[in-house]
Amino acid sequence: MTEFSKSTYNKVIRGSKRALYDKALVYEILDSHFLCHVPYVHENAAIVIPTAYGRKGDRLLIHGSMKNRMMLSLLEQEKVSLSVAHLDGLVLARSVFHHSVNYRSVVVFGSPVLIEDPAEKMEALEIITENIIAGRWAEAREPNEKELNSTLVIGIDITEASAKVRDEGAVDEAFDHDLDVWAGVLEIEAHPGRAVKNEDCKAGLETPASVLNFRFQNKGVKR
Amino acid sequence: MTEFSKSTYNKVIRGSKRALYDKALVYEILDSHFLCHVPYVHENAAIVIPTAYGRKGDRLLIHGSMKNRMMLSLLEQEKVSLSVAHLDGLVLARSVFHHSVNYRSVVVFGSPVLIEDPAEKMEALEIITENIIAGRWAEAREPNEKELNSTLVIGIDITEASAKVRDEGAVDEAFDHDLDVWAGVLEIEAHPGRAVKNEDCKAGLETPASVLNFRFQNKGVKR
């Protein structure tokens, strides 16, 4: 499969000319971020919570506490979804109406799977950690048995997905082109800032490679 | 009211020591961002979509196309919610288990209100635009009647809300303090990048004040 098939869930209706179902693109966008938003329903209200994720093939991996309401609710659903969005710029048109943003976003649908096997759980936590900051897993102490037992790991086996990408300048009405209004894109970038060492850190430890090499939202995706 | 009362919706259970119900803090976090995530339910699946917002008193304002599935579904609900989250840093502990992120986040619950009065709609669009980039409304052409008629504006009258903030270094187990592992926070910052003028822009137009003065995620909130 190189394209996700379209269903009532993932078919993009609004702004459909920006919709893309190419699997490689969807995965490229997913792999260039590490925070997703996961919606769930609690007592008739839809709620959304941000959380970290990683990807192994067609499975997304998330984790949380054993008592996490969002995580537990996912396990009761047949189909769950999550959303990932990069904000790349503000699109400033001559008219207020055609203001927009440049972005790369994905909505994924899938089947939730409880991951219980200790080796699989450990692998999932490594994938999530490495997706946040590559190289960190090998630097830090691995989870012990007690920590592993207190962590809930859920896989989401992707069944449907769609991407939406806007990556262009302002698009105004022809009759507005002569207005004395600047139009263009103000790019937005996320960067690592200072690395602030813990005060209780052992003396003499240098900033690790994972921190020195960290690049946000830029793992192979064009900016 | 200076604090939101706690209900089954907004009461934070997991990590409750980081939970805050102070109204001023909730509004400060809301006012320092402009993208929220709005969850809704479509054919038994919870879905979440990012969108822009603004705030007027106890009402949040969002807008979209007249046929936007997410927007229309909100109007059918008694209680809707949305989430706003700033990622401020990666918290790197000595143990993988105590890795975390520093963040400022808010979950808001409220009653959806369709805003139909043209003057109220115009005001809402100005508030949303100005919340994204201050000063832009006065620079650009205002929406005309046709544009206003094709825009759906929804208010969300806030009934409950909670904030969660993590703003500290790594917190490890005492028995890990002697490990030869660097611990600390890698700060994450969002900045405006280049201002890329449209090629079809009228000659001689200078970069406007709204662009020159733009500061992302930094409108009065400590970083």
TrEMBL record, chains A, B:
Q: State the SUPFAM superfamilies in the record.
A: FMN-binding split barrel
Q: Which domain of life is it from?
A: Bacteria
List the InterPro entries hit by this protein, alphabetically.
Answer: Pyridox_Oxase-rel (IPR024747), Split_barrel_FMN-bd (IPR012349)
What protein is this chain from? Answer: Flavin-nucleotide-binding protein
What organism is this sequence from?
Roseivirga echinicomitans
